[in-house]
Each structure stands twice: as C-alpha cells, then as structure tokens.
Amino acid sequence: xxxxxxxxxxxxxxxxxxxxxxxxxxxxxxxxxxxxxxxxxxxxxxxxxxxxxxxxxxxxxxxxxxxxxxxxxxxxxxxxxxxxxxxxxxxxxxxxxxxxxxxxxxxxxxxxxxxxxxxxxxxxxxxxxxxxxxxxxxxxxxxxxxxxxxxxxxxxxxxxxxxxxxxxxxxxxxxxxxxxxxxxxxxxxxxxxxxxxxxxxxxxxxxxxxxxxxxxxxxxxxxxxxxxxxxxxxxxxxxxxxxxxxxxxxxxxxxxxxxxxxxxxxxxxxxxxxxxxxxxxxxxxxxxxxxxxxxxxxxxxxxxxxxxxxxxxxxxxxxxxxxxxxxxxxxxxxxxxxxxxxxxxxxxxxxxxxxxxxxxxxxxxxxxxxxxxxxxxxxxxxxxxxxxxxxxxxxxxxxxxxxxxxxxxxxxxxxxxxxxxxxxxxxxxxxxxxxxxxxxxxxxxxxxxxxxxxxxxxxxxxxxxxxxxxxxxxxxxxxxxxxxxxxxxxxxxxxxxxxxxxxxxxxxxxxxxxxxxxxxxxxxxxxxxxxxxxxxxxxxxxxxxxxxxxxxxxxxxxxxxxxxxxxxx
Length: 569
Ligand code: TEU
Description:
The chain is α/β, with parallel strands linked by helices. Helix content is 28%, strand content 16%.
C-alpha cells in the first residue's frame, strides 16, 4: 500500500449550522468556524469537512443545493469561505467541502429550466420519465419515504428523487452533465480546497430502464426500498474512475466517500492504491441491526456486536486501504448514546469508546461535540423534531400501530437531530452557540457538558482526545499506530475489545474492558509502558497480569513478542 500524506492525520466534521453563530441569527456561520480554528488546532485536528454551506432552500439542511458556486447568505459570503481556507492553511489544516452531486435542489436553475421545457436539454440533466400506463415508472421507495417519482406539472411525466422531492436526481448517464459537475469541482479545488467528502455517491448509478426494475414490495405501501435497485445497478465504476482521473488525480485531492451498500469484493476499486476515493467511511456499525420495516423495528447494537463490526471492517481493509473510522456524524445519533449502554454512560466509558475508535487502523474522525461526549437529545415531543428523515420514520412507526409515545421513543434513539443540536461551548445561555435563539434546541445538559469546562480540566474527555491524537502523532509510536497490523487478542472474550497494533519491532496492545465488571487478563508478554489510560491507575499483579476496572481502557507497549498466545485468569 502506498503511503499518503493524510494517513497519519486526524479529521473533524463541522456541521456549520450548529457550530458557532457570530451574528445572532440562531444559525451557525463560516465566521464562527474561522473563530474556532484555534480550538480545533489545539485539539490536534488536521482535516476539516464542512457539511454543505451552499445556497439552499434547506429542505434537507443544505443537502439540497440550489447553486454550486456560491455560499448561502445564512452562512456568510464567498469571501468568508476564502478566508477560512486561507486561515486553515496558515495553521496547516486542510478544508474539505461536501460534494452533493447525486441530486441538487428543485430550485436549482437547471431544474427550473427543465420544468419549463420538459423535453429540452435541461430535462436530460435529470430523469424525466414518461408515465407507464398512467402510473409512475416503478415502485421504488425514497430514502425519506413515499415514491421516488413525482409528477412533472403539466405533463404525463415523472421526475426521479431518491431523497426528498425537493432533491431531484441528476442524470449521470448524461456526459454533458458530468462535465458540468467536474468543472464545478475543479473551480472549488482551484480555490484551495484539499478535497471533498462525497455525499450519497453510490446512488448515482441507477438500474435502468426503470420500468424493468419493479420489485416485490417490502412494506404494505406497495413500495420497495430504493437500496434494492443498487444490486442491479452495474457500472458505477465508469463514472467514478472518470471523476477520479479528470478531477481528483490532477489536483491530488483528498476524498472521502459516503459509500453504503458496496460488495465487499469491490473495496479495492474504491479505496485501493488506484481507488476512486482516498478513503471511505466505515458504516458497518451504524447500519448494523437495521430493519427493512423502519427504525421502530431496528435492533440496538450491543457492545459485543459493535466489536464484531469493527473487527470485520479491520480485516476487510487490512491489505487494501484506509477506512475512515467514525462513531457518529450528522445523520446518526451520538456515538456515546448508541454504543454505551445508557446505565453505564460516564466520562470513563466515553473515553473507552474514543480509545477504541482512535486505535483501530484507519483515519480517525471526530464529529463536532464528540470530543466533549455530547449526548442524544431527550425529545419531549415530535414537534421538536426538524429532520425530514425522523418525521418520516415517526409516521412509519405510527402506521405500524405504535402509540405516539412508543413512536417517539423509537425514533428518538436514531434521530438525525440528536447530533445536530448546537455545539456546547460554555454554560451561558444557548451554550455560547448564539446570542440569539438557536434554530434547534440546545441539549439541556450543556451546563454540565461544554467545551469551556472540559478545556480547563486535565481529566476531561476533551483532554483525553487531545492525548489520543498526540499519541497517534508521537514520533516513537506514530508508525505503528498508523500503519501497524491489526490483530485481535482474546477475541472470543465477550465485551473485551483487545487488539494488537504490530509495527516494525514494536507491539502495542489496546485493552478495553467494555463492561462495568472488572476483569483480570494475562498478557502474552510483559508490558513496558502504559501509553494511555482512561483511569488514574492500572492494577497489575505483575508485568504480565493486569486487572481492568469496569470500562477501563489502556494502550500498552509490550516487550517484543515471539508469538501470540491467548490467556486469561
Ligand atoms: O446521506 C445519505 C444517506 O443514504 C442517508 O439517507 C442516510 O442513510 C440516512 O441519513 C441515515 O439516517 C447523505 C447525507 O449525509 C444526508 O444528510 C442527506 O440527507 C442525504 O445524503 C441526501 O443528500
């Protein structure tokens, strides 16, 4: 595997709307991001991904873009964006923007022109399809509920939207459209962006012709999840390699794909040495337990299942490339609320989760607020929910017969709004996020969980993340942590996440006791150093016997191993 400049870096996702508001509008802005660059630098961040800040009607929080060449006035100006890129560069930080090119907004000029001339050139930028026997071309269900087909007013045609009806899909089969998109990407890269996070990209290839791909319904609505068609959509590689060769390669751009539903055998094509992308997110943990019926029927992952998911992904990517490791993002609940049993949630268990996530092989990511251990929002009513996806899932749950309270409980666990609440900077009103009224409710725990408090405390989660990042960059250990082989230790011990990272002449052992009861372990060889510990001390009976308290996590440097042996007392 070729070594790349970004392999040893740490990345951070900013959701601008909820990060820092400098105008009192209640909505975060780019000036707010600039203001907080030093905070991110102090934490040790190198790469920043900004969720969309282009002009948008906000049907899907900016993932519905109406102009690819501008900044939404809510977030600031193009000059602010240029300042942000320049200020980041000064601090040796890299900025990524969100590349949303599976669809645009129905308010984008292209779509407006398409509506005016449904047989014209711009209609071919989208999928305008004739009705079949007076009906929509097929029975696919959109990601946000309902049919993917919406009538084109004044015609007998339908247009395709895999997401919201205000997010019409762009027709990647159209060469002219692809060139328009590439031109736009180059324009941004010329501004000094390091690259992109690439949204929902697996969806750009459809199973065609549409009418051929009706499937048996998977719910009572007679529709089928649109992900079903992905299995029959072949040839996405033609588009992705074209984009790589015509845009990313000439700029040596860093790209991280939001990729779901690929065949495991194709990983090499996506993130191998000549992959379509530099890296892609590992969603195995986030998608585990999903039910075709909806969130209300989805299984809540256990610590042991979390471990199995992590290990499976580690094994899959070990010789291929670098996955991007996350515990949360703007589409997911807070990682600490999801992967730690509610009754065990504490700063110690949060540190355990961060240790595991950062010591696995791959590129580690922090989603804003994760470094503080921000938690899910306790929703009092469905009226507090803004997110389209959550509102749809609530309806699905109600239609399935759940009471209002049951449906709210079910969707609260998975709601995308959990992670979208304002960043908790301090314990003043609105958590120091805004001087105005925040667009989404601040989590009431901000008086306890906030950056100001955590920065002042040496044993806070924030300080622990700093230490983790510093360890990943420590000249004596960086090579092993970044490139060392991953190898499980005592894999069959339930709720123990233990693994080696083996480098040249160096072996690290990560031990995470993912339960509240303590346990004693026999190490395969004596340990020399404790590189990190989420508790004040480590009880060791000898240099090969350690007792971990509940949720204790440590990173040990071992004396060189001859061979590995399992053992426990
Ligand atoms: O998400 C893609 C996607 O597939 C989502 O539907 C995801 O499965 C879901 O949010 C999980 O709850 C991307 C963006 O990250 C998301 O915010 C957008 O809504 C979506 O694309 C459409 O642009």
